[in-house]
Design a protein that fits this description.
Number of helices of chain B: 15
CATH architecture of the largest domain in chain A: 3-Layer(aba) Sandwich
Strand order of the largest sheet of chain A: 2-1-3-4-5-11
Oligomer: heterodimer
CATH class of the largest domain in chain A: Alpha Beta
CATH topology of the largest domain in chain A: Rossmann fold
Largest interface: A-B, 36 and 37 residues
Low-confidence stretches of chain A: 1-21
Helix content of chain A: 40-55%
Low-confidence stretches of chain B: none
Shape of chain A: globular
Strand content of chain A: 15-25%
Helix content of chain B: over 70%
Shape of chain B: globular
CATH superfamily of the largest domain in chain A: Response regulator
Structural class of chain A: alpha/beta
Largest sheet of chain A: 6 strands, parallel
Distance between the termini of chain A: 70 Å
Mean pLDDT of chain B: 91
Number of strands of chain B: 0
Largest sheet of chain B: none
Chain lengths: ~325, ~375
């Protein structure tokens, strides 16, 4: 009994000292989990880079249910973590209430705008990057049929799809784009098996390049594309290395940069609205040793020219979310 | 006497099972290089150690009571309703429509209508599979599980369309407004001088869930309809011989089941989120099956089992929070071990224990 008591006491003091630390930054990942090889992992890479460069420590948490969004936010704020960074638009409502309750804590949310004085909202122009990889897909395709596999069917993913289709059609107006969404629930972000099935179905319909914008589900898409000897396009993180020579390119959404920046600013986090696009290095396509042989000079030239035009405003890619519709199919 | 004492059956066996589960889970935790005592400590303290922890535990418990009861009512008629997930999702749509349609002045007015909305929509979603089973013989397991997918697709269609709050990307409705705010335990208990955590989401719905459990008990064991349902579940041919309509029993049992599933939305949609969000059911519909089976389809057992599942949910969160070395997959393994031992493997300890008691009795006698 006394052993148990001292044991409980020891763990209790341990928990207390761990909780009452100085202002460490905190990171909350969305349901996909931090090792989704995609969106959340990009955020994780940003935190790691910050930790490696500054030698700082941070706390992190992977939520497993909707009710945990507010629970985790509140706990980090109560325990004095500052700033608190989170990935995913689904945190918006929870953050709205928690940010108001903790006016002295700074928050950063990726992929969403939360209008509170102590919140930094970072959004990305994914349609621009999707446009660029769409152009490349159309140039690399031999069957003139390319595929798109989205995660959960939400406006954000339709924005990816719409930008992609615009890019494909800009190169080849007659090309066919097959579009599929993995599902209608957040489980669609982490269902590689379904991603694999959809890829096979698209190949059967003639697609020879598939673009996955589906978080962890994309791992299955890229795997199947590699197995079936067609090309794929990765998303969010640079996924070229997953299947060297078989991933055409990756649409990189530099979530890592956004998280790194937020953590670097620490308690002096600059709040407000922050757009990251092709113009300021927030969005780009990946070129590295793994896909050097796949990208022709013509593709690179076209890609860089379009990127420049987007940055200068000479080329405007339609944003699905601006009017919830897409001019092309 | 060839039976073991009742106290052993009711208290000793569950206790031994939970102990076994924790020992096995502890070995798993030890194998990955973590302290198993910390694991047990954080899980129990997290679920029951503070009013915040209790508040979250009871919040999850409320969900599981509704879905557990829902499954059990259909099960008494030997109808395996695995559509709780979809029925709850559609119940959420009903709740949201009621609460969005009218600027409610006070929750006491809003609640009865929201309950009706949730129950009618949930029951309506169960009605189609029920009709197909009763009249066409389409198996209820197949139809209800397919209706879960249709419910998911319907939710996303509505939440990306007419119900969506404009000018933002999350697929959710606008907030219901202050008049539809259900009192939380913090607000309910502070007049009595009890300090309950402000951040815990447990709300008036818990009272509703307990009331539902009592009503289900009355229905199943104290009414003629309940007798019909149980009789139908035990022998379909006998009930037909006795003049009980199988169509009537099937449809009514499923309507009640769907309605109870729909009530989950009162806790989550009206009580916690105060708006309709996508996928708010989060598997509680399926968990209800395990809860009902563990609770032996008896409302009292279901409340207890729901509480255990609620503890596991909240304890799992705290475990993840306090021990970064334990991944969320590991938490799932621990939860699963406890469920297996307390639910599925009860007879593993009952038989040897029964023999032990009988032998003791013989020796004493």
């Amino acid at each position: 009994m006394t052993f148990m008591k001292s044991l409980l006491g020891a763990t209790a003091t341990l928990a207390l000292t761990a909780g009452a630390a100085f202002a460490e930054p905190a990171m909350i990942y969305d349901m996909g989990g931090k090792f989704d090889k995609s969106f959340n992992e990009a955020a994780y890479n940003g935190t790691q880079r910050w930790a490696d460069e500054t030698g700082g420590t941070f706390r992190e948490f992977e939520i497993t249910s909707e009710a945990q969004r507010e629970q985790a936010l509140r706990r980090f704020a109560e325990e004095g973590n500052n700033p608190i960074v989170m990935t995913g638009f689904a945190f918006a409502s929870a953050l709205e209430t928690v940010a108001a309750d903790f006016p002295d804590t700074k928050f950063a949310i990726i992929d969403m705008v939360v209008d509170q004085p102590n919140v930094r909202s970072v959004v990305f122009n994914e349609h621009e990057g999707s446009y660029l990889v769409g152009m490349m897909a159309a140039m690399a395709s031999e069957s003139d049929t390319v595929g798109f596999i989205g995660g959960m069917d939400i406006p954000l993913i339709r924005k990816f799809a719409c930008g992609y289709v615009q890019g494909v059609k800009a190169v080849n107006p007659d090309a066919t784009v097959i579009q599929n969404m993995t599902g209608t629930t957040p489980a669609a972000w982490n269902d590689p098996v379904k991603g694999s099935e959809l890829t096979k179905a698209q190949i059967a319909q003639g697609a020879d390049i598939v673009y996955a914008a589906a978080g962890g589900t994309g791992v299955g898409v890229l795997q199947t594309a590699a197995d079936e000897n067609i090309l794929s396009i990765g998303v969010d993180s640079n996924q070229n290395y997953l299947h060297p020579g078989q991933v055409l390119t990756s649409m990189m959404k530099r979530v890592d940069n956004a998280v790194y920046e937020a953590m670097s600013m620490g308690e002096d986090l600059e709040t407000g609205f922050n757009v990251m696009g092709v113009g300021n290095g927030g969005i780009s396509f990946a070129v590295d040793e793994y896909n050097a042989d796949l990208m022709t000079d013509a593709m690179l030239a076209a890609g860089y020219k379009a990127a420049l035009d987007i940055a200068t405003g000479a080329l405007v890619v339609h944003d699905y979310m601006s009017d919830n519709s897409c001019p092309v199919e | 006497m060839d039976k073991m004492p009742r106290w052993a059956d009711v208290a000793l066996i569950p206790l031994i099972n939970i102990l076994l589960a924790f020992i096995l889970a502890g070995l798993v935790v030890l194998a990955i290089g973590q302290n198993p005592f910390d694991m047990v400590y954080f899980m129990i303290k997290g679920a029951l150690g503070s009013t915040r922890g209790i508040g979250y535990t009871l919040y999850y418990t409320t969900n599981f009571i509704f879905t557990g009861l829902a499954f059990s009512v259909a099960m008494h008629a030997k109808l395996f309703n695995i559509g709780g997930e979809g029925q709850a999702a559609v119940g959420g749509i009903g709740t949201a429509l009621v609460l969005l349609a009218v600027p409610w002045p006070h929750w006491t007015l809003a609640l009865p209508f929201a309950v009706i909305g949730a129950a009618v929509f949930g029951a309506g979603w169960a009605a189609i599979p029920a009709y197909l089973q009763a009249k066409r013989g389409s198996h209820i397991v197949i139809t209800t599980i397919m209706f879960n997918f249709i419910a998911g697709a319907l939710s996303i269609y509505l939440l990306n369309g007419v119900l969506k709050k404009p000018d933002q990307q999350a697929a959710e409705t606008r907030q219901f407004g202050d008049g539809a705010h259900l009192p939380t335990f913090n607000e309910m208990l502070s007049p009595f001088g009890i300090e309950f955590s402000k951040s815990a989401p447990v709300n008036f719905s818990f009272v509703l869930a307990i009331a539902a459990a009592v009503l289900v008990w009355l229905l199943i064991w104290r009414t003629r309809l309940g007798y019909d349902i149980r009789a139908f579940g035990n022998s379909e041919s006998a009930t037909a011989y006795a003049g009980i309509s199988s169509v009537r029993v099937t449809i009514i049992a499923m309507l009640i089941s769907g309605g109870l599933s729909g009530l989950l939305a009162i806790n989550v949609v009206m009580g916690e989120a105060e708006r309709l969000i996508l996928n708010f059911v989060e598997g509680a519909g399926f968990m209800g099956i395990a809860v009902a089976l563990m609770g032996r389809n008896h409302p009292f057992g279901i409340v207890l089992a729901a509480f255990l599942f609620g503890m596991l949910n909240q304890g799992g969160f705290e475990l993840l929070w306090e021990m970064p070395g334990i991944s969320r997959e590991m938490v799932l393994v621990i939860q699963a071990l406890i469920i297996i031992f307390t639910g599925a493997l009860v007879n593993m300890t009952r038989d040897p224990l029964e023999r032990f008691f009988i032998r003791m009795n013989k020796r004493a006698g």
